[in-house]
């Protein structure tokens, strides 16, 4: 999730991406995303199991910001909101 192109980025894991994005977009979850206005789904990766997803989350949270930006732009060069593609 991001608040704008090259803006604040939030990285997390969920078993229901569509529901979680809805919650973030509508400010239903207190915390980082609400505080920084991270409402745009600009990147996601699917996994077969939660264990692998969490391992990837930990890995990516240790990355430098530039690496995360590269990952986003490979999938979504215009930083379009991908939420509508989930429906």
Automatic annotation (TrEMBL):
Query: What's the protein here called?
Result: Putative endonuclease
* Superkingdom to which the source organism belongs: Bacteria
Q: Which family does it belong to?
A: Belongs to the UPF0213 family.
This chain's source organism reads Sphingorhabdus rigui
Note the Pfam families from the entry.
Answer: GIY-YIG (PF01541)
Q: Which InterPro entries match?
A: GIY-YIG_endonuc, GIY-YIG_endonuc_sf, UPF0213_domain
According to the entry, every stretch annotated as the GIY-YIG domain falls at 1-70
GO molecular function per UniProt = endonuclease activity
Listed A to Z, the keywords are: Endonuclease, Hydrolase, Nuclease
């Amino acid at each position: 999730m991001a608040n704008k192109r090259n803006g604040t980025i939030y990285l997390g894991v969920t078993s229901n991406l569509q529901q979680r994005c809805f919650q973030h977009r509508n400010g239903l979850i207190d915390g980082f995303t609400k505080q920084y206005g991270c409402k745009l789904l600009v990147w996601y990766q699917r996994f077969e199991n939660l264990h692998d997803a969490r391992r990837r989350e930990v890995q990516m949270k240790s990355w430098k910001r530039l690496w995360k930006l590269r990952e986003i732009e490979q999938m979504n060069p215009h930083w379009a909101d991908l939420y509508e593609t989930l429906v």
